[in-house]
Amino acid sequence: MDMRSLGKTGPRVSALGLGCMGMSGMYGPSDRAESVATIHAALDAGVTLLDTGDFYGMGHNELLLAEALKGVARDRYQVSVKFGALRDPAGNWSGFDGRPAAVKTFLAYTLNRLGLDHIDVYRPARLDPNVPIEDTVGAIADMVKAGYVRHIGLSEMGSETIRRAAAVHPIVDLQVEYAVITRGIEASVLPTCRELGIGITAYGVLSRGLLGGHWTKDQGKAAGDFRGHSPRFQGGNLDRNLELVEALRAVAEAKGASVAQIAIGWALSRGSDIVPLVGARRRDRLAESLGALDLDLSADDLAAIERAVPPGAAAGDRYAAPQMAMLDSERG
Fold this sequence. Notes:
Elements: E1 3-5, E2 12-14, E3 17-19, H1 32-44, E4 49-53, H2 60-69, E5 78-83, E6 85-87, E7 93-96, H3 100-114, E8 119-124, H4 133-145, E9 149-155, H5 159-168, E10 171-177, H6 189-196, E11 199-203, H7 217-222, H8 235-255, H9 259-269, E12 274-278, H10 283-290, H11 299-308, H12 321-324
Parallel strand pairs: 3-4, 3-12, 4-5, 5-8, 8-9, 9-10, 10-11, 11-12
Antiparallel strand pairs: 1-2, 6-7
Helix pairs in contact: 1-2, 3-4, 4-5, 5-6, 8-9, 8-11
């Protein structure tokens, strides 16, 4: 497994990380035994970075990880945890909480659910508009001093917020959506992170399965999960985006690769400071994703990908309007 550093102050992690969100209902039902087997297969393949959130399945995902990691040597993996998203008993989203006391409470529950004595990278899932980022990061910094957290990360933050956070404590990485079909961070956020020596853990590299190469128009109509409300999976937007997938498929077939492998390979090619997260829920999908590590994309290949999916070609925003409004990263 190739290794990359999370920023200039962070740990060495596998070049691909495993995003575990989809194992806890965000994309429809999943099989618990297959989820655990997939985590084990990732570890056996040399994947060290496991990403979760305390609000994924309202704690289900952390408990699942705890089950999968039981008996696994602690030096074989790093756990990245997002916190702060609020949900009600029906699963509805109700805002974000970045208050210092809440930060420490969230962490205490996470440590208990995971059965760990420390978290490798701890990060607010979104910016709480009612709490200065300095206060939120300062509370995590207290937990670093106390030994409960090793490193501090951010998620979906804009350049100004990133700078303010980094002035309080070193930030190792920004977790943010980044894919050949989602390139908004290239204007400001990515240059800011590179200036400050902050790495990127890129989620959504397959755009919620759209770039997996297996999605159909009928699936878009029937989606009862997140994608049923995502603008990119709606009506004419989906038609347009599936055309982009087919253009990408032509590039993939010329390389003897799958669409997913080309999309992941593109993300890997954007810099050694970028660690893509793959959201495989099954071992076969994991194996396909790991195959991207063996791709050798030439300058001509990358140019062909750019022609197939030019910047800004995607139809529809990456989230519905209410969620887009909560993304500090969209402010640049």
